[in-house]
C-alpha cells in the first residue's frame, strides 16, 4: 500500500491541494521526514538529488504556521540567491494559501523592496546568510519568534565560506526551536557541527547503494591528445544533441570564453556565473527554464539545488574538486523520477579525480573516445530520416507534390528525393565538420606510444 500525504499527518486540505500540483504520493524522504518534523523533532535529512527534499521540510512548517502571529516564524537558509527564490516559490505553491506570507531575501536586489515586504509582515523567510544578517542588523528582520530553522544544502552551508555567517544567525535565534538540515550529501566532517547545532536529531537517510541516482546515465569522453577541450566538446554536442544542457566549468573567465566559442560555432548558449548582475542571472534562468536558451555554461553557483524541469544533460567540462560537487552537479538532471545524461570531459591528468568519483559512487564510468565523423554523420542521417517520416505523415507535404510532378518529367523520382535529402542534410551539418574534422585527425588519447598504432587501426576500421 502506498502512503498518502494525509497519512503522514498533513491536513486533508493540504493533501487535496498537493494533488492539484500532481503531488499524489510522497517521495521516500517526504514520508520519512515529515512525521518527525510534525512531531517537533530536529531532523538531518539526506536523500538523492531531485527527490523532493524541499517539500519534505516545507510541508510540516506550512502545516504549523500560526497565521495570527505576524512575525517570521520559519527561516530557511540557502547557499545561493537563485535557490532562495526557487525555494520561496516552491513554498508558495505548496502553501496554496495567500494568507501565509513567504518572502525571499538575498543580495543583489534592492534592499528597500525587501524591507518593505518584511514591514508588511511575513511568516516565512527564505534567504541567503549575508542578506539575512544585514536585514537583522538593520532591525528590519526580527528573529525572536523563529520556531523553525532549515539549512538547505546543509553541508555546503557549514562549509568554510558560510559557517561564520550561519553561526552568527543561529546565535540570534530562540533556543526553543526546531532545526533541520537537508542535503543530498552529508560528508562525515559535518557530524561535529550537527551535534553542535541540533538537539538529539533524528537522522533520516533514504537508503541507497549509490549516491548518484541510477536514472542518470553517466559517461566520460577522453579528449584526444593535442586537442583543446573546446574542440572536443563540438563532436560530443553533435552526437549527444542535448535538448538542454548545463555545462560546468571552473572559473567565470572560462565560462565567458567557452560561451563565446560555442556562440561562434552557432550554438544557442549563454553564460551563468557570479560576475553577472542579479537581474542578468534571473533573466538567464528564466530563459533557460522556458527553453529559449539551450545550453548554459556555468560555474559551481548552479551546482546545488536548482530545479530546471526536464534538463536533459549535465556536462562536466572540467571535473569539480570534490566528489560532493560532482554528485550535486549531475543531480541537476534526472529529477523527479525522470532520466538524464551526465557527461565528463577527461584529460589524462583527470584520471585521479575520476577514480575518486568512481570509488565514492561505487560505480565505474564508461570512458569513450570522442565521436568520429562517421558516427556523427550516421546520427544526422538518422535524425533526417525521422524528420522525413514526420513530414510524410503531415499534410503540408502535399503542397510540394506539383513540384515533384514537374521535376519527374526530367528526372527519376528517386533522384529527386535524394537531391532534396542532400539539401536538407547540408543544412543541418555544422560548418566545422565540413572543414577540419577529418576522422584521421583524431589523435590517440593515451600517451603510451605503443598504443598509437593500434588505435589508428581501430579508427580506420570504424569507417
Ligand atoms: N511527492 C512528489 N510528487 C511529485 N513530484 C514531486 C514530489 N516531491 C517533489 N516533486 C518534484 O520533484 C522535483 C525535485 O524536488 P526538489 O527540488 O525538492 O529536490 P531536492 O531533493 O531538493 O534536490 P536537490 O538535492 O538537487 O536540491 C521538483 O520539481 C518537485 O516539484
Ligand atoms: Mg533541494
Which characteristics define this entry?
binds adenosine-5'-triphosphate, 19 helices, 14 strands, seven-stranded parallel beta sheet, alpha/beta, binds magnesium ion, 463 residues, disordered C terminus, Rossmann fold
Provide an overview of this structure.
This protein has 463 residues and is α/β, with parallel strands linked by helices. The chain folds into two domains: 5-205, Rossmann fold; 216-373, P-loop containing nucleotide triphosphate hydrolases (Rossmann fold), CATH 3.40.50. Helix content is 45%, strand content 14%. It is built from 19 helices and 14 strands. It has helices at residues 12-20, 28-38, 53-64, 81-95, 111-120, 129-137, 154-157, 160-172, 191-197, 229-240, 252-264, 278-289, 323-330, 351-361, 373-393, 401-408, 413-428, 431-435, 450-461, and strands at residues 43-46, 74-77, 102-105, 124-127, 148-152, 178-183, 202-205, 216-222, 245-248, 269-272, 295-298, 313-316, 340-346, 366-369. A seven-stranded parallel β-sheet has the order 3-4-2-5-6-1-7, sandwiched between helices. Residues 53-54, 152, 305 line the site of magnesium ion.
CATH class of the largest domain: Alpha Beta
> How would you classify the helix and strand content by structural class?
alpha/beta
Average predicted local confidence, pLDDT? 90
What portion of the residues fall into strands of 2 or more residues? 5-15%
Low-confidence stretches: 446-463
**Spatial extent as radius of gyration:** 26 Å
Principal-axes shape call = elongated
Strand order of the largest sheet: 3-4-2-5-6-1-7
Number of beta strands:
14
Number of helices: 19
The assigned CATH architecture of the largest domain is 3-Layer(aba) Sandwich
Q: Which fold name corresponds to the CATH topology of the largest domain? A: Rossmann fold
Bound molecules: adenosine-5'-triphosphate, magnesium ion
Helix content: 40-55%
Query: How many angstroms does the end-to-end distance come to?
Result: 54 Å
The biggest sheet, with number of strands, parallel, antiparallel or mixed sense and barrel status, is: 7 strands, parallel
Organism: Desertifilum tharense IPPAS B-1220
Protein name: RNA helicase
Enzyme class: hydrolase
Pfam family, one: Helicase_C
Amino acid at each position: 500500500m502506498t502512503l498518502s500525504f494525509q497519512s503522514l499527518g498533513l491536513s486533508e486540505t493540504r493533501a487535496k491541494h498537493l494533488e492539484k500540483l500532481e503531488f499524489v504520493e510522497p517521495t521516500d524522504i517526504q514520508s520519512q521526514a515529515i512525521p518527525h518534523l510534525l512531531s517537533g523533532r530536529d531532523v538531518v535529512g539526506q536523500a538523492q538529488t531531485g527527490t523532493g527534499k524541499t517539500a519534505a521540510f516545507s510541508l510540516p512548517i506550512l502545516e504549523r504556521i500560526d497565521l495570527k502571529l505576524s512575525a517570521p516564524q520559519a527561516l530557511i537558509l540557502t547557499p545561493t540567491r537563485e535557490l532562495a527564490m526557487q525555494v520561496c516559490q516552491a513554498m508558495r505553491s505548496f502553501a496554496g494559501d495567500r494568507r501565509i506570507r513567504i518572502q525571499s531575501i538575498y543580495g543583489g536586489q534592492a534592499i528597500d523592496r525587501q524591507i518593505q515586504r518584511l514591514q508588511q509582515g511575513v511568516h516565512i523567510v527564505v534567504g541567503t546568510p549575508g542578506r539575512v544578517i544585514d536585514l537583522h542588523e538593520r532591525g528590519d528582520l526580527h528573529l525572536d519568534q523563529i520556531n523553525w530553522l532549515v539549512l538547505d544544502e546543509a553541508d555546503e552551508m557549514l562549509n568554510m565560506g558560510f559557517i561564520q555567517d550561519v553561526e552568527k544567525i543561529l546565535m540570534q535565534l530562540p533556543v526553543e526551536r526546531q532545526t533541520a538540515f537537508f542535503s543530498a550529501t552529508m560528508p562525515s566532517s559535518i557530524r561535529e557541527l550537527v551535534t553542535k547545532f541540533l538537539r538529539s536529531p533524528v537522522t533520516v537517510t533514504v537508503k541507497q547503494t549509490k549516491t548518484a541516482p541510477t536514472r542518470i546515465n553517466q559517461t566520460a569522453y577522453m579528449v584526444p591528445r593535442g586537442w583543446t577541450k573546446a574542440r572536443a566538446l563540438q563532436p560530443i554536442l553533435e552526437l549527444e544533441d542535448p535538448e538542454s544542457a548545463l555545462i560546468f566549468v571552473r572559473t567565470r573567465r572560462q565560462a565567458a570564453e567557452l560561451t563565446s566559442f560555442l556562440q561562434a560555432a552557432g550554438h544557442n548558449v549563454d553564460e551563468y556565473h557570479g560576475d553577472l548582475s542579479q537581474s542578468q542571472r534571473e533573466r538567464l534562468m528564466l530563459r533557460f527554464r522556458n527553453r529559449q536558451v539551450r545550453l548554459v555554461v556555468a560555474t559551481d553557483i548552479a551546482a546545488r539545488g536548482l530545479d530546471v524541469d526536464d534538463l536533459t544533460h549535465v556536462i562536466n567540462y572540467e571535473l569539480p574538486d570534490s566528489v560532493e560537487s560532482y554528485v550535486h552537479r549531475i543531480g541537476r538532471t534526472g529529477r523527479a523520477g525522470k532520466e538524464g545524461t551526465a557527461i565528463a570531459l577527461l584529460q589524462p591528468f583527470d584520471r585521479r579525480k575520476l577514480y575518486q568519483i568512481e570509488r565514492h559512487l561505487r560505480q565505474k564510468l564508461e570512458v569513450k573516445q570522442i565521436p568520429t565523423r562517421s558516427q556523427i554523420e550516421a546520427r544526422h542521417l538518422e535524425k533526417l530520416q525521422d524528420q522525413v517520416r514526420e513530414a510524410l505523415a503531415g499534410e503540408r507535404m502535399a503542397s510540394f507534390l506539383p513540384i515533384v510532378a514537374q521535376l519527374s518529367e526530367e528526372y527519376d523520382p528517386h533522384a529527386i528525393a535524394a537531391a532534396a535529402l542532400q539539401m536538407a542534410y547540408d543544412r543541418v551539418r555544422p560548418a566545422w565538420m565540413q572543414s577540419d574534422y577529418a576522422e584521421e585527425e583524431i589523435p590517440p588519447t593515451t600517451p603510451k606510444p605503443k598504443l598509437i598504432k593500434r588505435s589508428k587501426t581501430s579508427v580506420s576500421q570504424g569507417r
